[in-house]
Amino acid sequence: MVKLIALLKKCGVILMLSWLCAVIFNAVMPQGVGFMPDELLKPLWRPATMLDTWELFKNGAMFIDSRSSQEYEQGHIPWAFNFSPMQAEMMGDMLAPAMVKDQEIVVYGRTASRWPAAVVAQMMRKKGFHKIYVMDASFEQWAQAGYPHNAEAYTP
Question: Which residues belong to any copy of the Rhodanese domain (predicted)?
Fold first, then answer.
């Protein structure tokens, strides 16, 4: 037991030294090593609260669900298209010419952390779409708040 505790202490010291070296490296090097992806650190999209998202929904914005197809089938915002980051990368070049570039587009996902919705939104923005939003809540939070989801009929 004493050997195990000594080993754990050594591992803890090594981890702390590694972390300290990483912090020093990032402080000294101009590029550093990113702890977060550019999609979250330097977003080309705008965040949207649930209330903002509701207004965009009522005004006819396009919605993109960035979750898996299985999650999408279990429930989604009405009329939302389902594109995971991989699908958006593959389909984006084909769909971009057919879509209106100034259409308001809201991307949402499975978590409020905006991942992977941020990846899809960043790709859309790079393809020339100007009004890209990422909902700052998950689909589950949207549904629990009583906003339209699944096949619910929506009438303005």
Answer: 57-151
The pair phi, psi for residue 50, each rounded to 5°, is: -65, -35
Does 15 fall in a domain?
Answer: yes
Same domain, 137 and 112: yes
- pLDDT per residue over 77-126, tens digit each? 999 999 888 777 777 677 777 678 889 999 999 876 677 898 899 988 88
Sheet of 81-82, strand order? 46-48, 132-135, 105-108, 62-65, 81-82
Residues 70 and 91 in one domain: yes
Residue 96 lies in a domain: yes
Whole-angstrom distance, CA of residue 110 vs CA of residue 40: 16
pTM (whole model) above 0.85: no
Give pLDDT, residue 127: 84
Q: Are residues 5 and 81 in the same domain?
A: no
CA distance 108 to 129: 16
pLDDT tens readout for residues 59-73:
999 999 999 888 899
100 and 116 belong to one structural domain = yes
